[in-house]
Amino acid sequence: MDCLFCKIVSGKIPSYKIYEDELVYAFLDINPDSNGHTLLIPKKHYLDMNDIPLDTLTHIFKVAKELKVMLEEKLNADGLTFIQNNGDVQEVKHFHLHLKPYHKNNDIKDVKEIYETLKDRD
Ligand code: AMP
Ligand code: ZN
């Protein structure tokens, strides 16, 4: 299957990975709306909210809750927004949850710099 996010999970396309377990993979959005903009995806290919099984969705939100805390703490965020697109508003047709940290000072930095910040403070 010719799916961008499946290729990211398999390593065929590089990504700024910030978390991985047996079921999910999280990486920085290449075109971020905010510093630390993260995409959390199931490793298995599911199209959207209709397609994804409830147990996988539950696990995604368990991880999302943990990543939210990590991103807010490490990036000193003032808030965080979750977004999940379906249908015509979904650009990449592999289920993904956006985690968008909010900073009062919306000074967007390079993705690589944010990745280094997240990596360094482990
Ligand atoms: P959506 O509109 O919800 O389908 O969002 C897709 C997101 O994937 C967008 O925010 C893109 O910037 C992001 N994106 C596309 N290609 C890549 C990539 N190679 N690595 C990381 N993020 C990507
Ligand atoms: Zn896929």
Provide an overview of this structure.
With 122 residues, the chain is of the alpha+beta class. The longest helix has 21 residues. It is globular and about 40 Å long. Helices cover 31% and strands 20% of the residues. It has three helices and five strands, in the order αβββαββα. The chain has a single domain, classed as HIT family, subunit A (2-Layer Sandwich), CATH 3.30.428.10. A hairpin with a 3-residue loop joins strand 1 and strand 2. Strands 1-2-3-5-4 form a five-stranded antiparallel β-sheet. Bound molecules: adenosine monophosphate (AMP) and zinc ion (ZN). Adenosine monophosphate binds next to loops.
Question: What does this entry show, briefly?
Answer:
The chain is of the alpha+beta class and about 120 residues long. About 30% of the residues lie in helices and about 20% in strands. The radius of gyration is 14 Å and the shape is globular.
